[in-house]
Amino acid sequence: KSSSLQAEILLYLSTNNELNTWSYAKERGLDHQLVVGTIRSIESLGDVIKSEQHTSRSIGLTDEAKGLLRDGSYEYNIFQAIPADKGIEQPQLMKLPNANIGFAKAMSKGWLQVDKSSKPPMVKRKVDTVQDEVQHLLQRIHSLELTDSSAEEVVELKKRKLVEDVTINYFTVTKSAGFSTNISKPEADLTSEMLQSGSWKTVNFKPKNFHAKGLLPSYGCLHPLLKVRTEYRQIFLEMGFTEMPTNNFVENSFWNFDALFTPQKHPARDVQDTFFLSDPAVTTKFPEEYLQKVKEVHATGAFGSIGYQYDWQLDETQKNVLRTHTTAVSTRMLYQLAQEKTFRPAKYFSIDKVFRNENLDSTHLAEFNQIEGLIADYNLTLGDLIGVLYQFFRKLGMTKLRFKPAYNPYTEPSMEIFSYHEGLQRWIEVGNSGMFRPEMLLPMGFSEDVSVIAWGLSLERPTMILYGINNIRDLVGPEVDLKMCRRNPICRVIPAKSEE
Ligand code: PHE
Known about the structure:
Structural class: alpha+beta
Bound molecules: phenylalanine
Strand content: 15-25%
Shape: elongated
Oligomer: single chain
Number of strands: 15
Helix content: 25-40%
CATH class of the largest domain: Alpha Beta
Number of helices: 19
CATH superfamily of the largest domain: Bira Bifunctional Protein, Domain 2
Mean pLDDT: 92
Distance between the termini: 76 Å
């Protein structure tokens, strides 16, 4: 339907200089908005027509008047309700809708007479026939025959609130440079066929829309874990820490457990908690002297410790595993540090993957990332550890910390770290920490006045809190929505205000 109206409008313009949307709509009995909409759609096809907007004042029917236009005026209906010869009892007549106005108007027009001698009074016709002039006027206004708001009869209708002034927005439309009565949908693209056939010279192209949004270029984006990792890295670097090499996911039990004074019967070394490798299943090369000292400290005790007093097995220490914590990396670094001629204080950190044979749920996966920091220096105390932890977590926006005694085979004392989460309104565990045991440090070759403080936390947990992710499977694994990575903002861990 709208395309046939398009054709009609174009045909009209081919023989007329100008089209006025208001009068065109009225002449054809069309809705004005439909005509304006059609003009708009022709304009969108290219440089076919030009339009100019105008406003003008006119008169229109009120809602009440539309009822009168349809059903007749009140006075006319009153007259019609009176039987021609005998008349009607007045109370009966006044029951009609809008009888009061109708009766008053009909009386003043001299259409009726009232016989007050009978009880109740009788109303009778005074003339034989009447014309419904009001309805007729409304018709003329409706069909735009009558538009002058100052005409006497119009003023009268305005007083009766049947007619009101209205503003009309209409358009005058003229032909433009690309005018044609035969418009086809313009081409949006230049094709190789058009070039070959030469039709590009004559086809109608859609004008360029410089306001259109372009196609989004595809781009790579960083996973939230990588963004948060970068932030943590920055914090360590600011604090003067050096990153440790963490490129070996495969570790052997010696560096992952034994060197950390973790007994060979410890539950963490069970297949239920640790992934063991089948190929290659074992490592056979170790620093021999160091291995002997580690064996001794476990089996018989040494360096002032009575050890665990059990039958330490070489084949158990040889077993290859996927490292269960990055403390294995720290251990290798500390051993190297201990081999240097003179001791040099050091601050190291790492952020990388570890693997555990966990039951998977919304907060646990078989692989996750650990963040770990350590400081080796002369005579460090638990007070130093607590001080460094406050400094570190303050940079993450956490100022309220609590420490709870804990147990790790390789640290004494050990502390779980809790931070008060303002959003969750409760204390949440944010990490684990401690001072490495002499049973771990002395076999490496450190002197007794060297102590090492260390702490570790997961990368996933703060990432989930920062990005509002409740299920770890929405962060890592095959069910991750890649759009989540695109939409997520850059990461800024806001440091707590410094108190200095
Ligand atoms: N390795 C510990 C863990 O996996 C974390 C830790 C690191 C604890 C350093 C103490 C010292 O939870």
